[in-house]
Amino acid sequence: MTLQRAAFVQEALIYGSPEMPPLTQTLEEVESELQENIGCVALDGARMVGAVRARLDGELLLVGRIAIAPDRAGEGIGTTLLAAVERRGAEAGATEAELFTGSLSEANLRLYEREGYVETQRVPGDDGTEQVFLRKPLTGGAHG
Known about the structure:
Layout: H1 2-15, H2 21-24, H3 27-33, E1 40-44, E2 47-57, E3 60-68, H4 77-91, E4 96-102, H5 106-114, E5 118-124, E6 130-137
Parallel strand pairs: 3-4
Antiparallel strand pairs: 1-2, 2-3, 4-6, 5-6
């Protein structure tokens, strides 16, 4: 919870909205999301410095809530987590991964595009920004 909130404060500032779900979720909501989670965490000793959530929807791996400790941003933790969760998804039978971010989150968009994700859809939000959906084919796992 602490990591998620710390990581998403920066996003909330970009969008001028403290009402983002990662900042308003209760512990119970987070715990229920984690029931079907095949995501990963990044640890530095006992400290969690990054996390990503993911779940399978048929052959689609839905990736979300990539959170990096603000003081550890830019160290490649997000790239490592993304690769790990994609591998986990492929092993579980996913053939494609999907994630989304806001249209103002330039660093996120750069990371995803660098990692092979391609924009598939933009959904207008209430605040004049858009949710950008990106997808990437997964190789390996049970089918590769």
